[in-house]
Amino acid sequence: MNKQDGLAEHFNSHRQHLQSLAYRMLGSSNEAEDAVQEAWLRLNRSDAEQINNLQGWLITVVSRICLDQLRARKPAADDVVLDLHIDNQQGPETELLIAYSLGPALLLILDTLSPPERIAFVLHDLFDLSFADIAPIIERSEAATRQLASRARRQVQGASSSRQDDTHQQHLVAAFLQASRQGDFQALLSLLHPDAILRADATALKITKANQAKGAPQFEAEMSGATKVANTLKGRALGAMLSLVDGMPGATWGANGTTMVAFCFGITDGKITHIDVIMDRARLESMDIRPIEQESAEAAQGIQA
């Protein structure tokens, strides 16, 4: 084996790790591959025998290549370091939030960070490099690097918490629909705020009144109280589908591919505070309605429990 083959073998032993690192930094597998390939070209042009720590050298080179690419995407003003309080405590809850955000969702959050923030966060929080090692890569002091990572971490945690809230609200609506289908009055009460309000628009009032003999619910323009709301909707959601209504968890019912009614939920502190029944055609057509194909039965049961 000649020197070139030996160098290629050593490089390939680190390739997967470098590819993963570059992907987290850039959010694009093609760009990550290009960054790793550029690192290989630079290694070939270097005096490889003088490199004492090949992995460290490669991580530094790939990180700088990624940093240059990120800076090319964003205005230079994004590199400004704000003087923010640094919280060095990272307990299990923080680790869980960061772990929860791994994958495509994390990449969306990382896109909101400045290039130095992104590099500092990825290298420290996801790849466990020390701030002393990261600082020279982004050309900051160790203290400034720590500050950048801390700021990025807070943004990741905040976005993760928001996604968790959205998921919980979706499960809450799914649990409500399931309880309604099953006619489970006590489960409905447990999901509703004691002062919950049910409102129906003029079209809903007209249509349901005309179909009372067919078992349509007896809506009012506004009714309040969990007991009254639960009694009105008990056994009524047989054909309703969990949906996103203008980006919020809700429910819809339709026929022949047309949405006929939308149920918009208001949720505060884990309880349903109001439900709006919309049947006005013009308003329905103005809404962004996206059915969620599969509801999480286990999650719904867990919330009811």
From TrEMBL:
Pfam families: Sigma70_r2, Sigma70_r4_2. Residues 11-74 form the RNA polymerase sigma-70 region domain. It comes from the Bacteria. SUPFAM superfamilies: NTF2-like (SSF54427), Sigma2 domain of RNA polymerase sigma factors (SSF88946), Sigma3 and sigma4 domains of RNA polymerase sigma factors (SSF88659). Residues 105-155 form the RNA polymerase sigma factor 70 region 4 type domain. Interacts transiently with the RNA polymerase catalytic core formed by RpoA, RpoB, RpoC and RpoZ (2 alpha, 1 beta, 1 beta' and 1 omega subunit) to form the RNA polymerase holoenzyme that can initiate transcription. This is Sigma-70 family RNA polymerase sigma factor.
